[in-house]
Each structure stands twice: as C-alpha cells, then as structure tokens.
C-alpha cells in the first residue's frame, strides 16, 4: 500500500491596509509626504517582491492619478497603491514593526 502525503505550507499571514500604509510611510525617507520611484521600489523590496522594478513601474502607473511620477501620501494615490499591493498578496508577517512611540 502506497501512502501519498501532500506537503502543505501554511498560507501567508493576512495583510492589512494599515500594515501596508505603515510600510509605505516608513519608506518616505525624506518625509515630504510623497513616494518617489526609489522609495516605492524599496517598499516592494521589503515586501519580498521578486520583480520589484516591475511592481514599482506598475504600481506607480496604476496609482499616480495626476501623472507627476510620485505617489502623494494624503490623497487617492496612496489608497490606489495600497489596493494594488494588497492585490498581490504579499506576506506582511515578516515585515518590520513600527515603534510604539
């Protein structure tokens, strides 16, 4: 008798919009409330994207409503980028946590 056991892995931890927003805010390295190309790509790198260059291009294209090439943190552009990132189902359980200060 042959017994086949299917190897399974635990599903990735669910990501939340709040976690994604916190991650993006951390990557606003110059604190100008705008995410430039390098900052968006750095966020995708932290998320573990294998194609961070492509994800950055695609994310900005989808999210950048006014076409200035950056993501404004306090309007619909940030919301659009968060939705795009969430649609890719990244595992955020391994991401850095913000200080509680």
Automatic annotation (TrEMBL):
One of its GO terms (molecular function) is calcium ion binding. The keyword Lipoprotein does not apply. It comes from the Eukaryota. SUPFAM superfamilies: EF-hand. PROSITE patterns: EF_HAND_1, EF_HAND_2. The keyword Calcium applies. Residues 15-50 form the EF-hand domain. Keywords: Calcium. InterPro entries: EF-hand-dom_pair (IPR011992), EF_Hand_1_Ca_BS (IPR018247), EF_hand_dom (IPR002048). This is EF-hand domain-containing protein.
């Amino acid at each position: 008798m042959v017994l086949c056991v299917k190897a399974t892995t635990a599903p990735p931890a669910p990501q939340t919009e709040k976690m994604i927003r916190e991650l993006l805010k951390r990557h606003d390295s110059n604190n100008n409330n705008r995410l430039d190309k390098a900052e968006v790509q750095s966020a995708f790198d932290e998320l573990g994207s294998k194609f961070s260059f492509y994800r950055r291009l695609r994310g900005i294209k989808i999210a950048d409503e006014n076409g200035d090439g950056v993501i404004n943190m306090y309007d619909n552009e940030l919301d659009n980028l968060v939705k795009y990132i969430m649609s890719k189902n990244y595992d955020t359980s391994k991401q850095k946590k913000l200080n509680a200060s």
